[in-house]
Structure formats: structure tokens, C-alpha cells
Amino acid sequence: xxxxxxAIAQGITGATLYLYGxxxxxxxxxxxxxxxxxxxxxAIDSFDLRxxxxxxxxxxxxxxxxxxxxxxxxxxxxxxxxxxxxxxLLLGSLTGTTLLVLLLAAIxxxxxxxxxxxxxxxxxxxxxxELRFIGHLLLGVGLLFLGLATLEETMRHASFPGGLLTxxxxxxxxxxxxxxxLGSSHAMIGLLLVLTGSGLLPLPAALxxxxxxxxxxxxxxxxxxxxxxxxxxxxxxxxxxxxGTGVLLMVWWLPQAGAALDWxxxxxxxxxxxxxxxxxxxxxxxxxxxxRPLTDLAHRLLPxxxxxxxxxxxxxxxxxxxxxxxxxxxxPTLALAMARREVGLIAAMVEEMLTLVPEALFAADPQxxxxxxxxxxxxxxxxxxxxxxxxxxxxxxxxxxxAGELMAAMTVANELEAIGDIIENNIGHLAETRLxxxxxxxxxxxxxxxxxxxxxxxxxxxAADAFLTDDPTLARExxxxxxxxxxxxxxxxxxxxxxxxSGAADFTLYTxxxxxxxxxxxxxxxxxxxxxxVAGA
Length: 537
Known about the structure:
Distance between the termini: 81 Å
Helix content: over 70%
Strand content: under 5%
Structural class: mainly alpha
């Protein structure tokens, strides 16, 4: 006897509530913890157990491996984390994210009424962003469990074709495709809990579908559909290798796993949860010895297009040039190409320093300021190495064209080093001053500084890209930004003068803001000089 239309509608409603609740929950957790997790992960310098535990903690707080993966890709693209570090954190997150499945199995569905009542009340009772995200989280959790309860009720009272769920291929393919589209194994595991708890799905089939859900969640569908950086694509590839290898190995042991789980005095639903936890924990630990070879493979298959990133970023070690080969000094063309790539490494480091400026200023975090100082020390080391290398290219018989390229590379390296000094010495000093004086930035001043910073950072990125790709058109776009930068600077200064004349200004804050404007403008002029070198102006 087939299921009735009301039962089908009820099942669709339950599944929709469950998936929407899951999405809302992950959205709220990402907004509540994403910034703090980014800050903590970005400060990791080691490859030991702490890195693995940090990844587990990030996964436990975000409950979504896909969210952790994209966050790690952003940190790697900014050269805050090296490839091997991101893979270590990714392995740790595989265990942390399975906490959601434990919650699904442990918390009774009837408790959904509590977050369903508290979530909307909090949403409509406050305008504070953090409290509103907590309201979104409560509402999402409530909808999630309400959806599961609806599905469970549907399964208990409706009859379905008995052979459909026990067919050897249809459930596996359906689970694989659904997990790939949703980008989450948790969504499918939650549904498996309902099916096994209702007696509609035998345990062996549920275990096989659990493996299919983990493999489907690792398939890089979103990486193919969206434009991602090379670093993020590497993480998708690494996750697929980890999970795919684990699935292939676990398939052979699946009958023994079912027999072993039969000895446990728990329900079939809990056996699925235990198997899911065991699989991800095993993959997470077994992947640790493979970090080094997988890092090398990732860089070979998906190289950085500009060659500006580092595979292992550790500011405690002495810097060794990555691309400067003394054997090429007598071949100016090749030597200059290697020097350009090393200068690109300076540009990536300086851009990351520039990215940290708002956090150093507004959050007043001494760890961020200390990291900026370390990064500037590394910039100085690379600059010295590049300068020495450029001075030794070609000897006295350097062709005129090569001599021009050499001087251009030398100028760009000097301008980048100057920008790093401005960020570390001037802006870093202003951030340290804020630590002592603790002035509070009003929202309008914070917005003005943020807008100015974003404009200057975009100009710097364009200038660096123009040099790395030898693109005069892009360089001229940077030079054309002069008028808009000057207008923005004049507008901000006039606004501050108006506030100062009204007598409502804090003079300490006014001085700090004017100093920041001046330093942002200096950074832009150094970026414009880089663009002028590329444009030949």
C-alpha cells in the first residue's frame, strides 16, 4: 500500500522544516563564532596537537565542515595559514562537526517548543546584532527538531513501499546526490535517524547510507559552481581524498562493523550516530601522517597563480628565499622572473598586514599588533634578500631592457617595504596608543575609517596585481584613483573639522583619526608609485 497524499505532504513539510532549521542554525553559529574563530585560527603557527584540537574546536562551534573549509580557504588565501596548517585544521574539524549528530540523537524532539518560543521573542525584543543571532540560533534549533518530530510522526503512521528503502542502490545514490547538493552529511544523518528509529530502514543499509552521506558532502560541487581561490579548491580536494579513501576502506569492513554494533545495548539510531563518529574520527586521525605528501600533491595539482603564497608559514624560523636561485644570476630573464615571484611574496605579506589594520584598531587586540610586527620583520627579511639578489643579476653586461626590469623590481620592492613600515611603525603605534588611552570610536568615525581603509586596500591590491601580471591597464586604473582618494580624504577631514568647531569632538580621538587618514593616504601614494612603474609613466 502506498503512502497517502496527506502523509507525503506531511513528510515534505517535516523535511523542509528540518533543512531550513539546519541552515538557520549554521547561519547563526557562523555569525556568532566565525570572526573569533578566524582570529584564533589565523594566529596558529604550529603543526602539533594544538592545531588538530583547534580544528576540532572550530568544527564543534560551527557544526558545519563546509563553513570551516571555506573559512580556512580564506585564511590560506590571505597567507595567514599555510597549506599544511589548513589541512591539519580540516582533519580536526571532521570530528568537531559531528557534535551536531550527537545533539540530534540525544535531545528529545518535544523540547523543540522551548527554542521555538524563545527564538522569536528574542528576535523581536532586541536590536543588538549578537542577541539577534542567538534568536536566529534558537529558532533554527526549534525548527530543526520540529521537522524531525514531524518526519518521525509521518513515518510512524504512514506505510511506504517496503522494497524501496532496502534496494541495494537507490538509497545509496539518493543519499549521495542529496548530500552533495546540500553540502552536508549532517542533514542526511538526521533523516537516517528518523528512518532507523521508525523501523523503515535496516541497520546495514543505514550504515552504508552514512558512508554515502559523508562521501557526498565531500564532493566539491560548490567549488565547481562558485569561483574559489586555489587555496579553497585545495581544501575541497583534500577533504574528498580523506573522505573518499576512508569510504573505500570502510566499505570492506562494513559487515564486521554491523556485527560489532549489534553488541551495543542501544537503539539502531544511536548505532548510526556511533558509526558516523567512529568513521570521521578514524579519517581524522589516519590522515595525520599524510599531511606532508598531500600538501606537496595539492601544490602540484593546484598551484598558486601568482606564486605568492608560502607552504609553511612560521615566523619563529629564519626566512629562506623560495624562488631566488643564485645559479640563474647569469641568465637575467630567468633571474628577474624569480625575483618578481619573490616580490609577489612581499606583496602578499604586506596585503595581509593591511587586512589586519581594522582589527588592530577597533578590537585593540595586542596579539594582532604583535603579529603585524612579526610580519613586518619577515617583509624586511624578504626585501633584503630580493635587494641582494637583484644587485647580482647579469653583472656589468646587463642588457638595457633587463636593466629597466631590474630597476622596476627594485623600486616595487622598496615601495612595498615602505608600506610595511608605515603599517607596523605608524599605524601599529597608533593601535598601541589606543591600548593605553582606550578611546571609543563612534559608529560614524568607524564607518569613515573602514571605508577609507577598504578603498586604499583595493588600490593596493590592484597595484600588486598589476606588477605581478605586468598589466599597464590595471596600473593606470590605480593611478586614476588619485582623485577619488583625494576627494574622500578631503571630505573626511572637513567633517572632522566641523565636529571640532562645534566643540563636540574628543581631541584625542580627533588626533588619532587625522593620523590614520594621513597614513592611509601615504600607503595609497606608495601603491600609486608601484602602478607608475608598471605603466611606464
